[in-house]
Design a protein that fits this description.
441 residues; alpha+beta; 6-stranded antiparallel sheet; 5-stranded mixed barrel; 17 strands; 24% helix; globular; TldD/PmbA_sf; metalloprotease; TldD/PmbA_N
Length: 441
Protein backbone atom coordinates (compact mmCIF):
# COMPACT_ATOMS: atom_id res chain seq x y z
CA UNK A 1 0.00 0.00 0.00
CA UNK A 2 1.43 3.35 -1.09
CA UNK A 3 0.48 5.19 2.12
CA UNK A 4 2.17 2.55 4.29
CA UNK A 5 5.31 2.71 2.16
CA UNK A 6 5.27 6.50 2.51
CA UNK A 7 5.00 6.27 6.30
CA UNK A 8 7.83 3.73 6.42
CA UNK A 9 9.96 6.07 4.32
CA UNK A 10 9.22 8.96 6.69
CA UNK A 11 10.13 6.82 9.71
CA UNK A 12 13.43 5.72 8.18
CA UNK A 13 14.25 9.31 7.20
CA UNK A 14 13.63 10.48 10.77
CA UNK A 15 16.04 7.82 12.05
CA UNK A 16 18.72 9.11 9.67
CA UNK A 17 18.13 12.69 10.84
CA UNK A 18 18.44 11.66 14.49
CA UNK A 19 21.70 9.81 13.86
CA UNK A 20 23.06 12.80 11.95
CA UNK A 21 22.46 14.97 15.03
CA UNK A 22 24.50 12.64 17.22
CA UNK A 23 21.88 10.31 18.68
CA UNK A 24 23.32 6.91 19.52
CA UNK A 25 19.91 5.26 19.13
CA UNK A 26 16.45 6.31 17.97
CA UNK A 27 13.01 4.96 17.20
CA UNK A 28 10.01 6.53 15.49
CA UNK A 29 6.36 5.78 14.77
CA UNK A 30 4.47 7.50 11.96
CA UNK A 31 0.72 7.08 11.65
CA UNK A 32 -2.41 8.10 9.78
CA UNK A 33 -5.86 7.56 11.33
CA UNK A 34 -9.09 8.18 9.43
CA UNK A 35 -12.68 7.78 10.50
CA UNK A 36 -16.36 8.62 10.24
CA UNK A 37 -18.62 9.14 13.24
CA UNK A 38 -22.39 9.58 13.00
CA UNK A 39 -24.83 10.11 15.87
CA UNK A 40 -28.62 10.30 15.82
CA UNK A 41 -31.16 10.84 18.57
CA UNK A 42 -34.93 10.36 18.30
CA UNK A 43 -34.53 9.93 14.57
CA UNK A 44 -32.71 13.23 14.06
CA UNK A 45 -29.07 13.68 13.10
CA UNK A 46 -26.98 15.09 15.95
CA UNK A 47 -23.40 14.66 14.69
CA UNK A 48 -21.58 13.79 11.50
CA UNK A 49 -17.83 13.97 11.76
CA UNK A 50 -15.00 12.89 9.51
CA UNK A 51 -11.50 12.70 10.96
CA UNK A 52 -8.06 12.32 9.48
CA UNK A 53 -5.20 12.56 11.97
CA UNK A 54 -1.52 12.23 11.16
CA UNK A 55 1.47 12.17 13.41
CA UNK A 56 5.08 11.30 14.08
CA UNK A 57 6.39 10.44 17.54
CA UNK A 58 10.07 9.78 18.17
CA UNK A 59 12.50 8.96 20.94
CA UNK A 60 16.24 9.56 20.80
CA UNK A 61 19.01 8.33 23.08
CA UNK A 62 22.33 9.97 23.69
CA UNK A 63 23.91 7.11 25.57
CA UNK A 64 21.51 6.52 28.44
CA UNK A 65 19.89 9.96 28.20
CA UNK A 66 16.48 10.02 26.56
CA UNK A 67 14.35 12.62 24.81
CA UNK A 68 10.92 12.28 23.19
CA UNK A 69 8.84 14.60 21.01
CA UNK A 70 5.94 14.39 18.59
CA UNK A 71 4.16 16.33 15.88
CA UNK A 72 0.76 16.12 14.24
CA UNK A 73 2.21 17.33 10.95
CA UNK A 74 4.06 15.20 8.37
CA UNK A 75 5.61 18.27 6.76
CA UNK A 76 9.45 17.89 6.59
CA UNK A 77 10.02 21.22 8.38
CA UNK A 78 7.77 20.21 11.30
CA UNK A 79 9.49 16.85 11.50
CA UNK A 80 12.91 18.54 11.54
CA UNK A 81 11.83 20.77 14.43
CA UNK A 82 10.51 17.72 16.29
CA UNK A 83 13.84 15.94 15.85
CA UNK A 84 15.68 18.97 17.22
CA UNK A 85 13.34 19.19 20.21
CA UNK A 86 13.82 15.51 21.06
CA UNK A 87 17.60 15.82 20.81
CA UNK A 88 17.65 18.96 22.96
CA UNK A 89 15.59 17.21 25.64
CA UNK A 90 17.89 14.19 25.61
CA UNK A 91 21.02 16.31 26.05
CA UNK A 92 19.62 17.80 29.26
CA UNK A 93 18.08 14.79 30.99
CA UNK A 94 19.62 12.50 33.56
CA UNK A 95 21.05 9.16 32.54
CA UNK A 96 18.91 6.08 33.27
CA UNK A 97 20.61 2.67 32.93
CA UNK A 98 17.30 1.12 31.83
CA UNK A 99 16.94 3.41 28.79
CA UNK A 100 17.50 2.11 25.29
CA UNK A 101 15.98 0.20 22.41
CA UNK A 102 14.82 -3.40 22.56
CA UNK A 103 17.20 -6.34 22.48
CA UNK A 104 17.97 -6.86 18.74
CA UNK A 105 17.58 -10.64 19.16
CA UNK A 106 13.91 -10.15 20.12
CA UNK A 107 12.85 -8.07 17.12
CA UNK A 108 10.18 -9.53 14.85
CA UNK A 109 11.44 -11.28 11.76
CA UNK A 110 8.10 -12.52 10.42
CA UNK A 111 5.10 -10.25 9.99
CA UNK A 112 2.12 -12.41 9.00
CA UNK A 113 -1.15 -11.03 7.69
CA UNK A 114 -3.54 -11.15 10.65
CA UNK A 115 -6.62 -10.16 8.61
CA UNK A 116 -7.01 -6.81 10.38
CA UNK A 117 -7.70 -4.61 7.35
CA UNK A 118 -11.37 -4.33 6.34
CA UNK A 119 -12.22 -0.78 5.24
CA UNK A 120 -15.92 0.00 5.43
CA UNK A 121 -17.03 2.03 2.42
CA UNK A 122 -20.13 3.58 3.93
CA UNK A 123 -21.31 7.09 3.15
CA UNK A 124 -22.51 9.50 5.85
CA UNK A 125 -26.07 9.14 4.51
CA UNK A 126 -25.90 5.33 4.75
CA UNK A 127 -24.43 5.55 8.26
CA UNK A 128 -27.27 7.85 9.33
CA UNK A 129 -29.86 5.40 7.96
CA UNK A 130 -28.17 2.55 9.84
CA UNK A 131 -28.11 4.48 13.13
CA UNK A 132 -31.80 5.39 12.72
CA UNK A 133 -32.64 1.73 12.02
CA UNK A 134 -30.89 0.65 15.23
CA UNK A 135 -32.62 3.29 17.34
CA UNK A 136 -36.04 2.68 15.77
CA UNK A 137 -35.81 -1.06 16.47
CA UNK A 138 -35.12 -0.31 20.12
CA UNK A 139 -37.80 2.35 20.53
CA UNK A 140 -40.44 0.14 18.90
CA UNK A 141 -39.77 -2.75 21.27
CA UNK A 142 -41.94 -1.54 24.14
CA UNK A 143 -44.12 1.57 24.69
CA UNK A 144 -42.34 2.22 27.98
CA UNK A 145 -39.24 3.15 26.00
CA UNK A 146 -40.12 6.80 25.53
CA UNK A 147 -36.71 8.39 25.10
CA UNK A 148 -33.22 7.75 23.83
CA UNK A 149 -29.65 8.82 24.43
CA UNK A 150 -29.03 8.14 20.76
CA UNK A 151 -27.44 5.65 18.39
CA UNK A 152 -24.03 5.90 16.79
CA UNK A 153 -22.04 4.43 13.92
CA UNK A 154 -18.25 4.61 14.11
CA UNK A 155 -15.88 3.75 11.24
CA UNK A 156 -12.11 3.72 11.74
CA UNK A 157 -8.93 2.82 9.90
CA UNK A 158 -5.30 3.25 10.95
CA UNK A 159 -1.93 2.93 9.23
CA UNK A 160 1.28 2.79 11.26
CA UNK A 161 4.96 2.44 10.47
CA UNK A 162 7.59 1.85 13.15
CA UNK A 163 11.35 1.99 12.65
CA UNK A 164 14.42 2.05 14.88
CA UNK A 165 18.14 2.50 14.47
CA UNK A 166 18.70 -1.25 14.85
CA UNK A 167 17.46 -1.60 11.29
CA UNK A 168 13.94 -2.73 12.12
CA UNK A 169 11.08 -1.41 9.98
CA UNK A 170 7.54 -2.68 10.42
CA UNK A 171 4.18 -1.55 9.09
CA UNK A 172 0.66 -2.37 10.24
CA UNK A 173 -2.82 -1.47 9.11
CA UNK A 174 -6.09 -2.14 10.86
CA UNK A 175 -9.75 -1.20 10.97
CA UNK A 176 -12.14 -0.88 13.90
CA UNK A 177 -15.88 -0.29 13.49
CA UNK A 178 -18.67 -0.03 16.07
CA UNK A 179 -22.43 0.37 16.46
CA UNK A 180 -24.17 1.42 19.67
CA UNK A 181 -27.47 2.65 21.09
CA UNK A 182 -28.65 3.78 24.53
CA UNK A 183 -32.34 3.86 25.43
CA UNK A 184 -34.46 5.25 28.26
CA UNK A 185 -37.61 3.63 29.63
CA UNK A 186 -40.09 4.91 32.23
CA UNK A 187 -42.86 3.42 34.36
CA UNK A 188 -44.51 4.29 37.68
CA UNK A 189 -41.28 3.48 39.53
CA UNK A 190 -39.16 5.92 37.54
CA UNK A 191 -36.75 5.95 34.62
CA UNK A 192 -34.00 3.52 33.67
CA UNK A 193 -31.33 3.61 30.99
CA UNK A 194 -29.33 0.87 29.32
CA UNK A 195 -27.44 0.25 26.09
CA UNK A 196 -25.85 -2.28 23.78
CA UNK A 197 -23.08 -2.15 21.21
CA UNK A 198 -21.02 -4.20 18.80
CA UNK A 199 -17.36 -3.76 17.86
CA UNK A 200 -15.66 -5.53 14.95
CA UNK A 201 -12.73 -5.40 12.56
CA UNK A 202 -14.95 -6.10 9.52
CA UNK A 203 -18.43 -4.60 9.09
CA UNK A 204 -19.70 -7.95 7.79
CA UNK A 205 -19.23 -9.35 11.30
CA UNK A 206 -21.77 -7.02 12.93
CA UNK A 207 -24.91 -8.51 14.42
CA UNK A 208 -28.02 -7.26 12.52
CA UNK A 209 -28.88 -3.64 13.29
CA UNK A 210 -32.43 -4.42 14.42
CA UNK A 211 -31.15 -7.17 16.72
CA UNK A 212 -28.76 -4.72 18.36
CA UNK A 213 -31.56 -2.23 18.95
CA UNK A 214 -33.82 -4.90 20.43
CA UNK A 215 -31.03 -6.14 22.70
CA UNK A 216 -30.60 -2.64 24.11
CA UNK A 217 -34.37 -2.38 24.58
CA UNK A 218 -34.60 -5.72 26.39
CA UNK A 219 -31.85 -4.65 28.77
CA UNK A 220 -33.51 -1.29 29.40
CA UNK A 221 -36.95 -2.75 30.12
CA UNK A 222 -35.44 -5.37 32.41
CA UNK A 223 -34.08 -2.62 34.67
CA UNK A 224 -37.47 -1.06 35.39
CA UNK A 225 -38.54 -1.38 39.00
CA UNK A 226 -34.98 -1.70 40.32
CA UNK A 227 -34.62 -2.05 44.08
CA UNK A 228 -31.87 -1.66 46.63
CA UNK A 229 -30.53 -4.54 48.67
CA UNK A 230 -29.75 -4.78 52.35
CA UNK A 231 -26.07 -5.26 53.17
CA UNK A 232 -25.01 -8.90 52.95
CA UNK A 233 -22.32 -11.36 51.85
CA UNK A 234 -23.29 -13.49 48.86
CA UNK A 235 -22.03 -15.06 45.63
CA UNK A 236 -21.55 -12.63 42.74
CA UNK A 237 -21.72 -13.38 39.01
CA UNK A 238 -20.12 -10.89 36.59
CA UNK A 239 -21.49 -10.93 33.03
CA UNK A 240 -18.72 -11.14 30.37
CA UNK A 241 -18.55 -7.43 29.50
CA UNK A 242 -18.10 -6.69 33.22
CA UNK A 243 -15.93 -9.73 33.96
CA UNK A 244 -13.24 -8.48 31.61
CA UNK A 245 -12.68 -5.48 33.90
CA UNK A 246 -11.78 -7.94 36.65
CA UNK A 247 -9.21 -9.55 34.35
CA UNK A 248 -8.04 -6.03 33.47
CA UNK A 249 -7.33 -5.38 37.16
CA UNK A 250 -5.12 -8.48 37.20
CA UNK A 251 -3.29 -7.39 34.04
CA UNK A 252 -2.60 -3.96 35.52
CA UNK A 253 -1.24 -5.55 38.70
CA UNK A 254 1.29 -7.66 36.75
CA UNK A 255 2.38 -4.90 34.36
CA UNK A 256 5.94 -3.64 34.50
CA UNK A 257 5.29 -0.05 35.54
CA UNK A 258 3.39 -1.05 38.68
CA UNK A 259 5.93 -3.76 39.50
CA UNK A 260 9.20 -1.82 39.33
CA UNK A 261 7.59 0.96 41.34
CA UNK A 262 6.48 -1.73 43.80
CA UNK A 263 2.95 -0.36 43.51
CA UNK A 264 1.20 -3.71 43.07
CA UNK A 265 -0.09 -6.34 45.46
CA UNK A 266 1.36 -8.95 43.06
CA UNK A 267 5.02 -7.89 43.31
CA UNK A 268 7.32 -10.95 43.45
CA UNK A 269 4.47 -13.33 42.61
CA UNK A 270 5.87 -15.15 39.56
CA UNK A 271 5.67 -18.86 40.29
CA UNK A 272 3.04 -18.36 43.00
CA UNK A 273 -0.68 -19.27 42.85
CA UNK A 274 -2.94 -16.30 42.11
CA UNK A 275 -6.08 -18.00 40.77
CA UNK A 276 -7.63 -21.43 41.41
CA UNK A 277 -5.48 -24.25 40.05
CA UNK A 278 -7.93 -24.92 37.17
CA UNK A 279 -7.60 -21.35 35.80
CA UNK A 280 -5.65 -20.70 32.58
CA UNK A 281 -4.94 -17.29 30.98
CA UNK A 282 -3.03 -17.18 27.71
CA UNK A 283 -1.89 -14.23 25.63
CA UNK A 284 -2.55 -14.93 21.94
CA UNK A 285 -1.34 -11.88 19.99
CA UNK A 286 -1.85 -13.27 16.49
CA UNK A 287 -5.55 -14.22 16.44
CA UNK A 288 -6.94 -13.38 12.98
CA UNK A 289 -9.19 -10.29 13.25
CA UNK A 290 -8.44 -10.08 16.99
CA UNK A 291 -9.05 -6.72 18.64
CA UNK A 292 -5.53 -6.72 20.12
CA UNK A 293 -3.73 -8.66 17.39
CA UNK A 294 -0.26 -7.59 16.24
CA UNK A 295 2.90 -9.24 14.95
CA UNK A 296 5.17 -6.93 16.96
CA UNK A 297 4.86 -4.60 19.92
CA UNK A 298 5.51 -0.87 20.12
CA UNK A 299 9.28 -1.50 20.15
CA UNK A 300 9.34 -3.99 17.28
CA UNK A 301 9.65 -7.03 19.58
CA UNK A 302 7.99 -10.13 18.12
CA UNK A 303 4.76 -11.23 19.75
CA UNK A 304 4.00 -14.88 20.48
CA UNK A 305 1.53 -17.07 22.32
CA UNK A 306 2.48 -17.22 25.99
CA UNK A 307 0.95 -18.31 29.29
CA UNK A 308 0.09 -15.64 31.85
CA UNK A 309 -1.60 -18.00 34.29
CA UNK A 310 -0.82 -21.71 34.12
CA UNK A 311 -2.83 -23.97 36.44
CA UNK A 312 -3.60 -20.94 38.62
CA UNK A 313 0.06 -19.92 38.93
CA UNK A 314 1.46 -16.62 37.64
CA UNK A 315 3.79 -17.60 34.79
CA UNK A 316 5.24 -14.18 33.93
CA UNK A 317 4.84 -10.44 34.08
CA UNK A 318 3.78 -8.04 31.26
CA UNK A 319 6.93 -6.16 30.24
CA UNK A 320 8.39 -3.83 27.67
CA UNK A 321 12.14 -3.30 27.44
CA UNK A 322 12.37 -0.47 29.99
CA UNK A 323 10.35 -2.17 32.73
CA UNK A 324 12.13 -5.47 32.03
CA UNK A 325 15.53 -3.85 32.59
CA UNK A 326 14.30 -2.20 35.77
CA UNK A 327 13.36 -5.65 37.05
CA UNK A 328 16.41 -7.47 35.71
CA UNK A 329 14.23 -9.44 33.27
CA UNK A 330 13.58 -9.66 29.52
CA UNK A 331 10.87 -7.95 27.47
CA UNK A 332 7.77 -10.10 26.98
CA UNK A 333 6.76 -8.23 23.81
CA UNK A 334 4.26 -6.05 25.64
CA UNK A 335 5.55 -2.53 25.06
CA UNK A 336 2.34 -0.62 24.48
CA UNK A 337 0.15 -3.13 26.31
CA UNK A 338 -1.29 -6.61 26.25
CA UNK A 339 -2.40 -8.38 23.07
CA UNK A 340 -5.48 -10.66 23.23
CA UNK A 341 -5.82 -12.37 26.61
CA UNK A 342 -7.88 -15.56 26.47
CA UNK A 343 -9.42 -16.80 29.71
CA UNK A 344 -10.02 -20.53 29.26
CA UNK A 345 -13.81 -21.01 29.43
CA UNK A 346 -15.55 -23.72 31.39
CA UNK A 347 -18.43 -25.91 30.24
CA UNK A 348 -21.29 -23.90 31.79
CA UNK A 349 -23.37 -21.50 29.73
CA UNK A 350 -24.91 -18.41 31.34
CA UNK A 351 -28.08 -20.20 32.47
CA UNK A 352 -26.02 -22.96 34.06
CA UNK A 353 -23.93 -20.38 35.95
CA UNK A 354 -27.11 -18.83 37.36
CA UNK A 355 -28.21 -22.27 38.54
CA UNK A 356 -24.78 -22.88 40.02
CA UNK A 357 -24.87 -19.58 41.91
CA UNK A 358 -28.41 -20.44 43.12
CA UNK A 359 -28.90 -17.27 45.18
CA UNK A 360 -26.80 -14.15 44.78
CA UNK A 361 -26.06 -11.00 42.80
CA UNK A 362 -25.75 -10.79 39.02
CA UNK A 363 -23.64 -7.72 38.15
CA UNK A 364 -24.29 -6.13 34.74
CA UNK A 365 -22.77 -2.68 35.32
CA UNK A 366 -19.95 -1.21 37.41
CA UNK A 367 -19.40 2.42 38.38
CA UNK A 368 -16.51 4.29 39.94
CA UNK A 369 -12.79 3.57 40.17
CA UNK A 370 -12.46 2.16 43.68
CA UNK A 371 -9.65 -0.32 43.00
CA UNK A 372 -6.22 -0.08 44.67
CA UNK A 373 -3.50 -2.03 42.89
CA UNK A 374 -1.17 -1.41 45.82
CA UNK A 375 -3.32 -3.19 48.41
CA UNK A 376 -5.76 -5.07 46.18
CA UNK A 377 -8.73 -3.42 47.91
CA UNK A 378 -11.78 -3.41 45.63
CA UNK A 379 -14.94 -1.34 46.12
CA UNK A 380 -17.15 -0.28 43.21
CA UNK A 381 -20.68 0.86 42.65
CA UNK A 382 -22.79 -1.73 40.85
CA UNK A 383 -26.19 -2.56 39.44
CA UNK A 384 -27.70 -5.74 38.08
CA UNK A 385 -30.18 -8.36 39.26
CA UNK A 386 -30.94 -10.41 42.35
CA UNK A 387 -31.07 -14.15 41.68
CA UNK A 388 -32.92 -16.80 43.70
CA UNK A 389 -33.03 -20.53 43.00
CA UNK A 390 -31.04 -19.92 39.83
CA UNK A 391 -33.60 -17.48 38.37
CA UNK A 392 -33.48 -13.70 38.00
CA UNK A 393 -36.19 -12.24 40.26
CA UNK A 394 -35.75 -8.45 40.15
CA UNK A 395 -33.31 -5.69 39.13
CA UNK A 396 -31.15 -3.95 41.74
CA UNK A 397 -29.33 -0.62 41.80
CA UNK A 398 -27.41 1.80 44.06
CA UNK A 399 -25.29 -0.89 45.68
CA UNK A 400 -21.57 -1.33 46.30
CA UNK A 401 -19.62 -4.56 45.98
CA UNK A 402 -16.40 -4.93 47.97
CA UNK A 403 -13.61 -7.41 48.67
CA UNK A 404 -9.87 -7.71 48.07
CA UNK A 405 -8.62 -8.69 44.62
CA UNK A 406 -6.31 -11.29 46.13
CA UNK A 407 -9.34 -13.06 47.65
CA UNK A 408 -11.53 -12.43 44.61
CA UNK A 409 -9.06 -14.12 42.25
CA UNK A 410 -8.67 -17.12 44.54
CA UNK A 411 -12.44 -17.39 45.07
CA UNK A 412 -13.43 -17.65 41.41
CA UNK A 413 -15.75 -20.64 41.23
CA UNK A 414 -16.33 -20.83 37.48
CA UNK A 415 -15.79 -19.15 34.10
CA UNK A 416 -18.63 -19.48 31.59
CA UNK A 417 -18.42 -20.39 27.93
CA UNK A 418 -20.43 -17.27 27.00
CA UNK A 419 -17.30 -15.48 25.80
CA UNK A 420 -17.70 -11.83 24.74
CA UNK A 421 -15.72 -11.35 21.47
CA UNK A 422 -15.86 -7.53 21.45
CA UNK A 423 -12.57 -6.92 23.25
CA UNK A 424 -8.92 -7.94 23.42
CA UNK A 425 -9.79 -9.56 26.78
CA UNK A 426 -11.75 -12.68 25.87
CA UNK A 427 -13.66 -14.09 28.84
CA UNK A 428 -17.04 -15.52 29.68
CA UNK A 429 -19.05 -14.71 32.80
CA UNK A 430 -17.11 -15.10 36.05
CA UNK A 431 -18.70 -16.48 39.22
CA UNK A 432 -17.17 -15.53 42.59
CA UNK A 433 -17.98 -17.53 45.68
CA UNK A 434 -18.54 -14.52 47.92
CA UNK A 435 -18.33 -10.72 48.12
CA UNK A 436 -19.74 -8.08 50.43
CA UNK A 437 -22.72 -6.26 48.93
CA UNK A 438 -23.40 -2.95 50.65
CA UNK A 439 -26.83 -1.39 50.23
CA UNK A 440 -29.41 -0.15 52.69
CA UNK A 441 -28.40 -0.43 56.32
Amino acid sequence: MAELDRLAGIAEDVIRRCRAKGASEADVAASIDAGLSVGVRLGEVETVERTRDRGVSLTVYFGKRKGSASTADLDPKSIEQTVEHACAIARHTEEDPANGLADPALLAKDKPDLDLWHPWDISPQEAIRLAVEIEDAGRAFDPRIDNSDGASVQVGASLTAYANSLGFVGTERGTHHSLSVALIAEDANGMQRDYWYDSVRAAGDFIPAAQLGRKAAERTIARLGARRLSTRDCPVLFVPEVARSLIGNFLSAVSGGALYRRASFLVDHVGKPVFPEWMQLVERPRIPRGHGSTAFDAEGVATRDSDLIKDGVLARYILGSYSARKLGLQSTGNAGGIHNVVVQPGSDDFAALLKRMHTGLLVTELMGQGVSLITGDYSRGASGFWVENGEIVYPVEEITIAANLRDMFQNIAAVGRDVDPRSHILTGSILLERMTVAGDA
